[in-house]
Amino acid sequence: MNQTRARVPALTGLLTVVSLALVFGAVLGAIPPRVLPHAPESVLAAIPHLNAAISATAIVTIVVGVRAIRNGRIQRHRRSMVATFGLFGAFLILYLYRITLEGPTDFAGPAAVESFVYLPLLAVHILLAIVAIPLVYYTLLLAASHPVAELPETNHPRAGKLAAGLWLISFSLGIVVYAMLYLVW
């Protein structure tokens, strides 16, 4: 635990770089699709819907976790935040898998909606996700490397509030982007 404690910033940086490299590699087509097994089309088509459900569930677990810590329910907070991170991991794996095989989904709505609504929402969603990733790793690594009694004296509470807020907004905007891509148009 002490070795991890001293390396929290470095581990945060490493995990962030790896995560973002995977995401940008998949989105930009740098990961060759042939390195992955190809699922049936029905499975690939279901991934966006499953990821929307995962995002909605993550919103609930974040809210439960925030309320729990405000009420001093540390174990419930911990379970909720670990569950949220697990949901994020599942979302990310499914997203990377689908985007590597099929590429990004094109917006099928009107050009004006794409330019003035969809793309700005997507940009904010992506920016918040990028900013949230190191905060989430940092907060979780602090929690994993310190006894609960010491966490209030670390950056865990401050970074956790910011990470939770950014995560909530990013997951929410992700659902709006999903709705615009798969439900409205």
Automatic annotation (TrEMBL):
Pfam families registered for this protein in UniProt: DUF420
GO (cellular component) term, any one: membrane
Membrane-spanning ranges: 45-69, 81-97, 117-141, 162-184
GO biological process: respiratory electron transport chain
GO molecular function: cytochrome-c oxidase activity
InterPro entries: Cyt_c_oxidase_su3_a-hlx, DUF420
Keywords tagged on the record: Membrane, Transmembrane, Transmembrane helix
Name of the protein in its database record: DUF420 domain-containing protein
